[in-house]
Each structure stands twice: as C-alpha cells, then as structure tokens.
C-alpha cells in the first residue's frame, strides 16, 4: 500500500515526475494519457503547462517538446480511436456484468437511429452518433434522457457539437468529433450539453437552452461556450 501511495504521489507531483522521466519520457506519458485506457489517471494538461515552464527556464528544450509531444498526442488519439473501433462491436459478445449490459447498448443504438441518427462506433460504454442537422440530435438526446430511467436503464449524459468533419471509411474525424467527446465527458448524468453552434442551429420550438457560459474542457485549448438543452 505504501508503495502504491508513493507511486501516485510521484505521478501527481508534476515537477518531480518531469525530473524523473526527462525530455523523452514526456511523449510516452502524453501518448498513454490520450490513447490508452490504462493511462486515464496520468496527468495531461498540467503536465504540458509545467513542461512549458521548465522549457522557459532552460531545463527542457522547447523545440524538442514541440516535435515530440504533438505527434505523441496525435498518435495517442488515433490509437484510442482504433481501440474503440476494433473492440466496440465486440462488446455485444461480452457477458453482462454489474456495470455493463448488452441490452443497454442495443436499445441506445436503435433509439438514435429511429430519430434519424447514424451510429458511427461504440466507445466502451458509450456510443458516437452523427445527425445531419443539430436540432434532430438535440431532440433525440432529450428524449433518450427522459426515457432511459423509465426503461430501467441508468441515466445518460450527452455532448453535442456542430461543425465540419472529415469522413473516411465509414467514420468521422476532426475537431468537431473530439469536442463532442470532451463535452460528453464534462456533462453530468441526465444532462445534454451543446455548443453555441448547436444551440443556434436548432430550430425546434420545443427545445430551450440555458446558457452555462465559458468552460474549460480537458484536451481542448481555451474555453468553450456551452448551453444546457431542455424542454421549452
């Protein structure tokens, strides 16, 4: 137990962690944090900020940080996507457990497609959908949030963003996709959070949007203006 406590103490003591792993250990941490399920506990943004401070005082090479950390983050995101793509559908053959029910995935998949959405891929216990226009996605999300508890399913949380995407081999890529995932991570159970572009592009009269304001999202530079969707 003491060994485990010491390990976590070192990991979250960012300056000490940088001193231990050095210039070339940082890309490995960023890759694991962005792309591997086992790296979820590793520091990300705080590590980058502290590494920048080290570089500012000459302890690390800024050009080397740029040419190693950016590819590490990109490769990490790509690896995480491939893991989700290759293992997502395999969840249907996974036995039910306390935290996982195949029926939950099937019902969510069928529900969104009934409302005009297209299932893109399975990501752990979540799903990624594409809608041709924002309002239909918000309406479907709100109905799902309302109906899941009545069906005996655990509450869900949804993040929606609108914007350009790259379509390749049946999948969607790009900043809009990444932003949606980060918003979903930020949302609490029972919430449907959307960007300003989604709120502005939703013409349905039965939908209202409460302004949350600017928020900071993990893995997203700057702040993002979010709204909470609800029934009008």
Within CATH, the superfamily of the largest domain carries the name: Nucleotide cyclase, GGDEF domain
CATH class identity of the largest domain? Alpha Beta
Shape: globular
Distance between the termini: 52 Å
Q: Would you identify the CATH architecture of the largest domain?
A: 2-Layer Sandwich
Number of strand segments? 8
How many strands, which pairing sense, and closed or not: the largest β-sheet? Answer: 4 strands, mixed
Strand order of the largest sheet: 3-6-8-7
Helix/strand/pairing category = alpha+beta
Helix content: 40-55%
User: Strand percentage, roughly?
Assistant: 15-25%
**What number is the mean pLDDT?**
78
User: What quaternary form is this?
Assistant: single chain
Radius of gyration: 20 Å
Order of helices and strands: HHHHHEEHEEEHEHEE
Spans where pLDDT lies below 50 across 5 or more residues: none
- Kindly give the count of domains: 2
The tally of helices reads 8
Q: Which fold name fills CATH's third level, the topology of the largest domain?
A: Alpha-Beta Plaits
Structure description:
The protein has 232 residues and is of the alpha+beta class. It has two domains: 2-87, no CATH class; 95-231, Nucleotide cyclase, GGDEF domain (Alpha-Beta Plaits, 2-Layer Sandwich), CATH 3.30.70.1230. 50% of the residues lie in helices and 18% in strands. It has eight helices and eight strands; from the N terminus they run H-H-H-H-H-E-E-H-E-E-E-H-E-H-E-E. It has helices at 2-11, 14-35, 45-56, 62-88, 102-114, 134-147, 175-186, 196-200, and strands at residues 118-123, 126-130, 158-160, 166-168, 171-173, 192-195, 207-215, 224-231. The strands form three sheets. A four-stranded mixed β-sheet has the order 3-6-8-7, sandwiched between helices. Strands 1-2 form a two-stranded antiparallel sheet. The chain has a two-stranded antiparallel ribbon with strand order 4-5. Helix 2 (14-35) crosses helix 3 and helix 2 packs parallel to helix 4. The N and C termini lie far apart (52 Å). The model has no long low-confidence stretch (mean pLDDT 78).
